[in-house]
Amino acid sequence: MENTREIFQIMTRRFGLLNKSCCSAGGIDISLIQSHILYEIDHQHKPSVQKVAEALDTDITTFSRQIQSLIKMNLVKKTPDPDDRRVYVLSLTTEGAFVAASIDQQINAYLNEIFSQMNEFEKDTVIRSIKLLNDAMAKSSVCCTSPMG
Amino acid sequence: MENTREIFQIMTRRFGLLNKSCCSAGGIDISLIQSHILYEIDHQHKPSVQKVAEALDTDITTFSRQIQSLIKMNLVKKTPDPDDRRVYVLSLTTEGAFVAASIDQQINAYLNEIFSQMNEFEKDTVIRSIKLLNDAMAKSSVCCTSPMG
DNA sequence: TCAAATAATTGCAAAATGCAAATATTTAAG
DNA sequence: CTTAAATATTTGCATTTTGCAATTATTTGA
């Protein structure tokens, strides 16, 4: 258990680099944070501004401005919620969905390349392990439980 | 393979949150980036300013200033390299080493809590899987190979 | 011996951050 | 009902962070 953190540190940093480098799609440059926002909007069901900000653990005022940029870039749409007019619902524009899909594709291509170095059994084991880990983290009381399914 | 990215995204974001929340030690508040810098200095052998900046994929000028803050906080020391006087070698002060160890401990405590939900076999499998993953990523040509062992 | 290369720092202007306050709307209590 | 408290989002503003271009100091190689 001594160097457990170390292997996690290496892993998460590599994925961080991956995300960092994977932020250009169709001539549009996207910051790392913007990429995360697009991903999150894409994966939540009609999320409010607050929901996405929480999921990404970002200050709501900062997030509000980040959304403004994405709207200016025509990647995100903000629609008033008819049930509660304080709330704005976020969604991707056609262009935003395209960019998100493109980034997704780039990252999956990288993951596929990584997994191509393993046999089927190893690959299954690794994927099952990560799911196990995610479940365990979701149950943990110490940290980081609240957002994300 | 469809949702492979998704499980990685969840995992890395959870660890990101963990790091974010684990950045206070002995009354000293540390930013996420500062925590990564301390970790990296601690794990490299007499690294130069440039080496650490590269490992963390940070712009060298930004990094130079981050080091300046850490020196002001008395967590990092900068020593001229006798072999090449353009170079400065970074190391942790006693206090910096203490802070780094404390953060390490907090993160390991969290990891232990997570693993306590698994049996020995699962735990071994998960750890072996992550090592496998790290090796595969290190070999990959697509992305993110250069820094880090 | 001197021009090119390298390591690190600084100037500066642009971008990101987050607290406090403002706005708009909803909820709940009397 | 009416109105005060609560909630969702946005803006004002001051601070911090960022990164390109230029600078300094040193080393390397022709």
TrEMBL record, chains A, B:
Chain ranges of the HTH marR-type domain: 1-135
Domain of life per record: Bacteria
InterPro entries per record: HTH_MarR-typ, WH-like_DNA-bd_sf, WH_DNA-bd_sf
Keyword line: DNA-binding, Transcription, Transcription regulation
Pfam families (alphabetical): MarR
PANTHER family noted in UniProt: TRANSCRIPTIONAL REGULATOR, MARR (PTHR42756), TRANSCRIPTIONAL REPRESSOR OF EMRAB OPERON (PTHR42756:SF1)
UniProt protein name: DNA-binding transcriptional regulator, MarR family
Biological source species: Gracilibacillus orientalis
